[in-house]
Amino acid sequence: MTAQSHDEMASGGHPDAGTEVSPVQGGVPHEKPVPVVNIANILTVLRIVLVPVFLVTLFMDGGHSTFWRIIATIVFAVAAITDRIDGQLARKYGLVTDFGKLADPIADKALIGAALVGLSVLGDLSWWVTAIIAARELGITLMRFAVLRHGVIPAGRGGKLKTLVQSLAIGMYLLPLPAGWATASAIAMGLAVFLTVATGLDYVIQAVRLRAGVHPHEPGS
Questions:
Q1: Where is the chain membrane-spanning (predicted)?
Q2: Residue-range definition of the domain harbouring residue 60
């Protein structure tokens, strides 16, 4: 019995049974590339597009109109929710791309940064809070580009938690809540600042290890 006939019997009598292979690859299985234009990346781009819309609604009627503050909060919430949805779709349907890994955190930073600066300009949020968060976000974004040739640093669970807390805290500042909510809003923003700094340090460590050639699948990562 030849080696070929033995293989055919092991696969049920058909030489092509089992894993489908591509003749172009010489019989080596390969995955179809994920298209950059997919629903997950479209939602990410939509989040970026909603940033100027949010700012316009935030500053309508001097920035302290109850009606427009509610509208601004809704726009902000819709944009923030897309962050959750696009990530789930990307993981569930295998739509993860390098563009998405890079654009998703940038979209988050654009939305969060616009909200913080807007609230500080209106006098609703201290500038030092905005400065700390903005410096961290800008620094991490520049760092991502600096190490891009070594690999992409995706947003981790800590970064996602940070973004969630930031969004909740910003939402509390955006809404025209009663004065009694001021303490709760300040506590939420304080937690957001803490997570922002902590996760920023974690990303710096990841960048240093990436430049050193240490990847997540390697020992010690």
A1: 39-60, 67-85, 181-205
A2: 39-211
The three-state secondary structure class of 19 is coil
Coil, helix or strand at residue 176? coil
Residues 89 and 81: beta-carbon distance below 8 Å: no
Residue 120 lies in a domain: yes
- Structural Rg of the chain based on CA atoms: 23
CB 121 within 8 A of CB 185: no
Angle at 183 between CA 180 and CA 187, to 5 degrees: 150
Q: Is residue 20 one of the residues assigned to a domain?
A: no
Q: How many angstroms separate the Cα of 112 from the Cα of each of 23, 109, 138, 196? A: 48, 5, 11, 12
d(CA 54, CA 74): 9
Distance separating alpha carbons of residues 40 and 129, to the nearest angstrom: 31
Asked whether residue 144 is domain-assigned, the answer is: yes
Question: Amino acid identity of 208?
Answer: V
Dist. CA 42–CA 82, nearest whole Å: 10
- Does any domain span residue 176? yes
The pLDDT tens digits along the chain (221 residues) read 554 444 444 444 444 444 444 444 444 445 677 777 788 888 889 999 999 999 999 999 999 999 999 999 999 999 999 878 877 787 777 777 878 777 887 888 899 999 999 999 999 999 999 999 999 988 887 887 777 666 666 666 777 788 889 999 999 999 999 988 999 999 999 999 999 999 888 888 877 777 776 554 433 33
Domain holding 152: CATH number?
A: 1.20.120.1760
